[in-house]
Amino acid sequence: MPPLPAEPRPGRYRHFKGHEYEVLGCARHSETLEILVIYRSVEGDNTLWARPRAMFMDTVALPTGEQVPRFARADGE
């Protein structure tokens, strides 16, 4: 089995809607082997989340039509 991808690296990220999250790392779905990003909210209750890596790394269109990353690095790295 190939190694997990290097990106996204662990650290703090900002969702395009403004909330901040800490990426803990990547994992494989136990049934499909799809690569998931595991992250937690740094605001409020520290809820854990998992999202397909392709979706995490994707861009989204703002109402203005501008394309921006769904999650952008927020800790200066």
TrEMBL record:
Superkingdom: Bacteria
InterPro entries according to UniProt? DUF1653-like_dom (IPR023387), DUF1653-like_dom_sf (IPR037135)
Gene3D superfamilies for the chain: DUF1653-like domain
Domain (DUF1653) spans 11-72
Protein name according to UniProt: DUF1653 domain-containing protein
Q: Give the originating organism.
A: Termitidicoccus mucosus
